[in-house]
Design a protein that fits this description.
The chain is mainly alpha-helical. It has three helices and no strands. Among the domains are: 42 residues; 30 residues. 78% of the residues lie in helices and 0% in strands. It starts with a helix and ends in an 18-residue tail after the last helix. Keywords: Signal.
C-alpha cells in the first residue's frame, strides 16, 4: 500500500511538472528589441502628452469660467458705485454750504454795528 501511495505521488508530481513545462512553452517570454522599446516609449509619450494637453484645456476652461464669475460680480456692484458717487456729491454739497455760511459769518463780522444807547429802542429778539 505504501508503494502504491508513493508511486501515485510520483506520478502526480511528474504530471504536474510536465503540465507546467508545456504551459510555459506555449507562452514564450518575448524579449523586445531596442526599436520596439523605442516605439513603445514613443507611443506612451504621445499618450501622456495628449493627457496633459487635455488637462491643460480643462484647466483653461475652468479659469475662464472663474474669470466670468468675477467679472459678473464686479458688474453687479454698480449699485455700490452709485452709492459712493451719491455720498461724494452730498459731501461736496455740504462743504459748499459750510463755506457759504462761513463766508456769510465773516462778512457779518466785518460790518460795524451800532448799538443804540436807548434801551427802549432795542427791538426784542424773538426766539423760534
Amino acid at each position: 500500500m505504501k508503494n502504491r501511495l508513493i508511486s501515485l505521488l510520483v506520478i502526480l508530481v511528474t504530471a504536474s511538472s510536465f503540465a507546467f513545462v508545456t504551459t510555459a512553452a506555449d507562452k514564450p517570454h518575448k524579449k523586445m528589441t531596442l526599436a520596439e522599446k523605442g516605439e513603445q516609449a514613443r507611443i506612451e509619450s504621445i499618450e501622456l502628452e495628449q493627457t496633459q494637453l487635455q488637462k491643460a484645456r480643462d484647466a483653461a476652461k475652468a479659469t475662464k469660467v472663474r474669470e466670468q464669475e468675477v467679472l459678473a460680480k464686479h458688474q453687479g456692484n454698480d449699485w455700490e458705485a452709485k452709492q459712493l458717487e451719491k455720498a461724494r456729491s452730498q459731501s461736496d454739497e455740504r462743504l459748499t454750504r459750510q463755506q457759504k455760511y462761513l463766508q456769510q459769518a465773516q462778512d457779518a463780522a466785518k460790518q460795524t454795528h451800532k448799538i443804540p444807547k436807548d434801551p427802549k429802542t432795542i427791538e426784542p429778539v424773538l426766539s423760534e
